[in-house]
Amino acid sequence: MAGLSRAAVPVLTVNPGSSSLKLHVLDDAGTTTTAQELAVAAGRLDSADIATFLSAHPDVTAVGVRVVHGGRDFRQAVLVDQAVEDRLAKVADLAPLHDPPALSAVRAVRRACPDLPVVACFDTAFFAGLPAAAATYALPWPWIQRWGLRRFGFHGLSHAYATRRAPELLGAPPGELRLVICHLGAGASLAAVAGGAPVDTTMGFTPLDGLVMATRSGSVDPGLLLWIQHHSGLPVEEMEQALLFESGLAGLSGTSGDMRAVLSAADSGDDRAALALAVYLHRLRAGIASMAAATGGVDALVFTGGVGQHSPRIRAGACAGLGFLGVAVDPERNTTAGGGDRDVATTASPVRVLVIQAREDQEIAREVRRLLG
Known about the structure:
15 helices
């Protein structure tokens, strides 16, 4: 199809969740002109809702939808047609929390406005070029070939934005920086970035791997899971439910898993919440150190995502054990509310510590414009 004209610039970005859907309209400068959050029943978006939104914004020229898992089929953003939609449905079980709502959003937009270009933007695309040593599992080779098993990595849209934003804040060429990016929210992952490209990450074949998360376990010894199944006969469905929804901070602390609730309970003397917080920070510090090893050192540590942006205690707790890497946080800068994207390291710290607002919407819009014109 023909590229977008420079006069027709508004792009709608659609960021689906299991219970809500965020809609942002961005102009060519990346400024959000409209933002709305829609309630989504059972992860399914009503096409009438999206039609109502689009009728109020007739200047929208294209739509970008965040899709968490592209599997081995999708290594970059793609214009959606029926064949692509069908292929998206086949990989949806790789991210059962995220891909079904995204597929629902794609279908709703296409039904509401069949002539509007819809672009699927994948969280896995940023990591498609991971070095083989980082992406490959030490599993039987026939398994790897048959099923395309590899470390896919996630939160790629957020990590990609932070990768571009950090050099702007530091006034340094992207090719000269070694970054460790911490996307911390209900889901959490780290990315090691060297020369503007990812070289390692903590999430793997699915978004269940890596750090401790709100309700997800993160990395667990596979032998432990096999032991449970051998001794209890626990069905796969129950195991999946437990690992996705009943583990992580929620499982350890007995709270909802929301970091604010965990911190509040720990402050009130709840031992389980205190343990959950300690486990979370222990895994986070260890992960940061492993990412720094992958980049051969670190020039800047980046915190983004809801927890990364808004929890000074988590930033301070993570950095407290990283002095050996040269990380030193200024307590006053770190606890000052607001201020937008900023550096919270001490003046003398050889490693800068950046707080960057997560702007997946900007990255989605950028991908849409790149693909369409």
